[in-house]
Automatic annotation (TrEMBL):
InterPro entries xrefs: 6-hairpin_glycosidase_sf, 6hp_glycosidase-like_sf, AGE/CE
Keywords carried by this UniProt record: Isomerase
SUPFAM superfamilies reported for this sequence: Six-hairpin glycosidases
Name of this protein: AGE family epimerase/isomerase
Family the entry assigns: Belongs to the N-acylglucosamine 2-epimerase family.
UniProt cross-references to Gene3D superfamilies, sorted A to Z: 1.50.10.10
Keyword Isomerase: yes
Pfam families: GlcNAc_2-epim
Keyword Aminoacyl-tRNA synthetase: no
Length: 415
């Protein structure tokens, strides 16, 4: 698969020094975040110094992401990584699991009264179990079977051809909301399951989600992705209009998600073609348009370096925060398009985005990356001095060096 329209540029990824830099940065990130291990089980969010705050409890999303990330590190041959992934798997199979009704809590249930069942969280439980299963982590295969069962019977709607959002703890009440974010990570999960379980149906599901959210909705909004829908999939563009900074349900369009969707669409195209299926032509066209629209809306649109967090429906900056994951996903997308096209446009952005991350986000004094910065590129007072998440940054050091298909869990050993 090639979409070559320009002369091949001189690529950083052809440089041994750059590839060495990626390896070194990935290992440094991994070493920093391994400190998030809780002796009582699972993983917690770290503060800016890489310490677990007093009273912190296990977080299911982070534990699922650590199961995934540590399994990737184990596949690369990083000592101690397999044990950390197993530690995450034990917590997901134990204290974070709802023994009464099935499924998973968002955090240690002893620490929260919210016991609702969230699709987003279940997707990371399943992703962690899938990657750990491929890495032959003890307990992962059994966890994966249960998690896939919950995804299939609770969260995947065959009628809607998409994922539903959330239920009450006992599964009796389904929320009247459908989310773009959970469906985007649903596409990510589908791509992983298609390869780890060798099942075509997951690619069919991924394509159905992309067609709905991107080809039917975002394309008609100048490739600004609508994140919020009512339960009947009618658009809800004003949802959370007073919360443009919300970490999971912000108002407006999120350029970072535009980049993330665009990359996942390239993986989907490659995965379909690797199985002898014909990918629709709009898949690449829409992905490329998403990438360019996200740059248009997000890059320095308030005059400061980097990408803004959200914009309104006319593309005006809405939340000026700089979030590390937005930049990590943008450069991973640039690398994916570069692999597809060899166009100098994407090489320039790949280099520029790493330069911004190097300048703004990498904390060379204390380790890790700053995760949330304000518009003046200082630690965001509203979020605090925190470094809770390895997943986006770590994958940004891996994905540029890997093929678009099969899934990174199956190819990371090549590094």
């Amino acid at each position: 698969m090639t979409h070559n329209t320009n002369q091949k540029p001189k690529r950083w990824l052809d440089s041994a020094a750059h590839r060495h830099w990626l390896t070194r940065e990935g290992l440094a990130l991994f070493d920093f975040h391994r400190q998030a291990r809780l002796a009582s089980g699972g993983f917690a969010a770290l503060d800016g110094d890489g310490c677990i705050p007093h009273g912190a409890s296990a977080d299911t999303m982070l534990t699922g992401r650590m199961a995934h990330s540590c399994a990737l590190a184990a596949l690369q041959g990083v000592p101690g990584a397999a044990a950390l992934s197993e530690h995450a798997i034990r917590a997901l199979a134990g204290k974070l699991h709802d023994e009464q009704y099935g499924g998973w809590f968002g955090v240690d249930p002893a620490m929260s009264h919210d016991h609702s069942k969230q699709c987003y969280i279940h997707q990371f439980v399943t992703l962690g179990a899938a990657t750990a299963t491929h890495a032959e982590i003890p307990g992962a295969a059994a966890l994966l079977e249960e998690a896939v069962g919950v995804i299939n019977t609770r969260f995947w709607s065959e009628d809607e051809q998409a994922f539903v959002e959330s239920f009450s703890q006992d599964w009796s009440e389904l929320s009247d909301y459908r989310g773009g974010n959970s469906n985007m990570h649903g596409v990510e999960l589908c791509l992983a399951l298609a390869d780890v379980r060798d099942e075509q149906l997951w690619l069919d599901r991924a394509l159905a989600i992309v067609e709905r959210l991107i080809h039917r909705h975002a394309a008609l909004r100048d490739y600004r992705i609508l994140e919020h829908f009512h339960g009947d999939w009618s658009e809800w563009p004003e949802h959370n209009a007073d919360r443009p900074d919300d970490g999971f349900y912000p108002y407006g369009a999120t350029p970072g998600h535009g980049f993330e969707w665009s990359r996942l669409m390239l993986h989907l195209e490659a995965s379909l073609e690797s199985r002898g299926c014909t990918a629709p032509s709009w898949l690449f066209t829409d992905a490329a348009a998403l990438f360019d629209a996200s740059l248009r809306d997000g890059w320095r649109t308030d005059g400061a370096p980097g990408l803004v967090y959200t914009v309104d429906w006319e593309g005006r900056p809405n939340s000026l925060r700089r979030r590390h994951w937005t930049h990590a996903e943008a450069l991973a997308a640039a690398a994916a398009f570069l692999r597809c096209t060899d166009e100098a446009h994407y090489e320039r952005w790949y280099q520029q985005l790493w330069d911004v991350i190097d300048t703004i986000f990498i904390d060379r004094k204390r380790g890790g990356w700053y995760q949330e910065l304000d518009s003046k590129l200082q630690i965001d007072a509203a979020e605090g001095d925190v470094k809770p998440d390895l997943y986006h940054a770590y994958q940004a050091t891996l994905l540029p060096r890997l093929p678009l298909a099969p899934n990174l869990a199956l190819t990371v050993q090549r590094l």
